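tool_log.txt
---
The assistant was asked to compare two proteins side by side. It first ran the structure predictor on the initial sequence, then on the second. Raw inputs and outputs are pasted verbatim so the downstream comparison step can read them without reformatting.
(1)
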Amino acid sequence: MSGAIASISRPRFLCLLRRYLEDDREHLGAMLETANALRETNGWPWYVLVQSYATNGGVARWNTFLEQANGAERIRWECLFADDPDDIDAAEDRLCALSEEFAARRWLSRTRPALLTSLRRVHALGGPDAMALVWNTLPEAQALLCWLKTFPMIGDKYARNMCMDVAHPLIRDHVALDHRLNRIC
C-alpha cells in the first residue's frame, strides 16, 4: 500500500472516498456505463488483456493508438487472425508489429513476450469468447483474480483493474489502490 494511503485511518479514508465519489458521481456513472458496454462486446477479455500489457509503464501511447490509429479495431482477435483462425504465427507477427505502436517503449522488452505468451494461451483456450466463459463461470472473486494472475505479468492490481474495466459483477465491491485514488489523500 502506498505511504499516502497507509498513513490515514480507515474512517478518514472512507470519509475522503465518499466525498470523492459524491463529487465525481456523474463521471463514475459514465465509467460504469462504458464498462458495461465493453463487457457486451465480442472479444472483451482479449481487449482488456491487451490493454493491461499496453498500459504497463503509462497510458499515453495506448490512448494515442486507440484515438488516432483505429487501434481498437486493429487489435481485435478477428483482425489478428484475419487470414486463418489457426495461424497463430501470423497473428503473433501482427501483434508484435502492433505492439511497437501501443506499448510503452521502456517496458516493451518485458511486455511483448508476456503479450505474445498470452496470445498463445487465449488461442489454446479457444479464443476470447472461450476466455469469457471461463472468466464468467468462476464462482467467486478470489478464484477469478487467481485465474487472471496466471497470465504473465498480471498481478493483484492488474487483475482487479481488468475486472473493474468491465464492471465484472464479482469484483464490483473491490478497489485497486493506484493512481486513480491517490488524489483523494
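(2)
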Amino acid sequence: MKKYLLIGALALSCLPPVQANHEIVLNFSYSASASDPSFANLKGPLRIAAFVDQRALENKRLLSTDGAQLEAPVAEIISAAFVQAFSENAAKPVAENERFTLEGSLTELSVADKDGNSEVLIRAHVALKDGSRTIWESPLVSRASAANLPDATRNSINGLVKQLFLDDYFLMELI
C-alpha cells in the first residue's frame, strides 16, 4: 500500500502547479492630454471597429501567465480605449454610415517583473480604411511599467492611443 501511495505522490509532484485565475478590474479611462489632436473637423464620420485578439489563447481575458485576467476581453478594452480617446478629443465615433473605419488587432501582450515593478508590453496593428480601401496602416507598440499590474496595463493601453495620435500620416488622412 505504501508503495502505491509513494508512486501516486511522485506522479502528482511532476504535475505543474494549479494556478487559480484572479480577475483584475481595470476600469480603464482614457487620460487626455494637451498634446492630443482635435478631431472636431474630421473629413468624414469615423467608426471604430472592434479589435480582434490574434493571440493564440482560448481565454481572451488573460493578461499574464500567473492567471491574472481582466474583467473583459483585452481587445474589447483596447477598442473601448480608442473610442474614449477619440470622443475626448472632439470626435463622435459612429456605429454606421461611416466614411472612415479604424480597425485593429491585438498581436501580443506580455507581462514581466522588472525590478519589482510590473511591465506590460502590448503590440497591435491598426489600419484606417476609407470605404473598403486601406489608406493607412501601422503597427503600434507600447511598453509601460508601474508598481502594480493594473496601472502598468492602463499605462500601456494609453501608450497605444498616444502613439496613434502622434502619427502625422494617420492624422493627415483623417483631419
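---
observation on (2): The first strand starts at residue 22 and ends at 24. Residues 77 and 161 are 12 Å apart (CA to CA).
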